Automatic annotation (TrEMBL):
Swiss-Prot/TrEMBL catalytic activity: a uridine in RNA = a pseudouridine in RNA
Gene Ontology BP annotations: enzyme-directed rRNA pseudouridine synthesis
E.C. code: 5.4.99.-
Protein name: Pseudouridine synthase
Top-level taxon in the UniProt lineage: Bacteria
Enzyme class name: isomerase
UniProt keyword DNA damage, yes or no: no
Length: 274
């Protein structure tokens, strides 16, 4: 986060900053150090070099105070979480686990992955029981709302093993749009990973921002290729990487910064959202 990425001279300063109004806040360099961005000394250098923004405005004064509960801070245009009570985890949800903190039917749920943490965590969005892959667990309700609601346009990428040989024409159909019982839908991106000439099974990758129930399975079934196995590999800027199925880990500071940046920059509405 501390790479050399100095903003231009045209970056806006905050002309409405009132030192007296912020006098009861916390010094910016102390807040950055507490958030794990850098040591207090290095944080001071970041501030004086114009690499820190508070509520979108460049701050260069070492005496600047902020309110961690309400002010938004970014370093090198990457958001910083100042509230150290917030927790952010990545889970590679296994097949057979429902996306619920307490399943009324007694099926395996997410508690086995969250009981080890003191915070009351919840999942961001859902994966059906037969789908594995990336699921975010957090206690940050504002972030969860932006990431889960399709109107904000946060994309998700899935890899599906499907029956039959998928053709380029089918990929074009998925991208141009198909009609389902609950309305039209299209993939933002789609591509063939493997499609053996003899038939059997194909591997395809789909990216979309829809949050509709079992949408990937229903789309592929509608074009004649029922899903055999489905994994969510990406959620916004996050990538599952090498995280093993059933494993959970904290987001890195870089991943969290990217996620917070996406949530702060998300449009308030998107007319073509599904």
């Amino acid at each position: 986060m501390t790479q050399d990425n100095t903003p231009s001279d045209a970056a806006p300063r905050d002309p409405n900053f009132n030192p007296e109004a912020a006098a009861d806040g916390v010094r910016l360099q102390k807040v950055l150090a507490s958030a794990g961005v850098a040591s207090r000394r290095v944080s001071e250098d970041l501030i004086t070099s114009g690499r820190v923004r508070v509520n979108g405005k460049v701050v260069t004064e070492l005496g600047r105070r902020v309110h961690p509960e309400t002010d938004q801070v970014a370093v090198d245009n990457v958001a910083v979480q100042l509230d150290t009570t917030r927790r952010y985890l990545m889970l590679n949800k296994p097949v057979g686990v429902v996306s619920s903190m307490q399943d009324e039917s007694g099926r395996p749920d997410l508690r086995e992955f969250t009981d080890q943490f003191d915070e009351r965590l919840f999942n961001v969005g859902r994966l059906d029981a037969q789908t594995s892959g990336l699921l975010i667990l957090t206690n940050d309700g504002d972030l969860a709302h932006v990431l889960a609601h399709p109107s904000f346009g946060v994309s998700k990428t899935y890899i599906a093993k499907v029956e039959g040989r998928v053709s380029p024409q089918t990929i074009g159909q998925l991208q141009s749009g198909i009609e389902l019982d609950d309305g039209p839908i299209h993939a933002d991106k789609a591509r063939i990973l493997t499609s053996p000439p003899g038939g059997g099974f194909s591997m395809v990758e789909l990216t979309l921002h829809s949050g509709r129930n079992r949408i990937v399975r229903r789309m592929l079934d509608a074009v004649g290729h029922p899903v055999v196995d489905l994994v969510r590999r990406q959620f916004g800027p996050l990538n599952l990487g090498t995280l093993q199925q059933g494993a959970v880990r904290e987001l890195t500071r870089e991943e969290l910064g990217q996620l917070l940046t996406v949530s702060r920059q998300a449009p308030s509405a998107r007319p073509d959202a599904n």
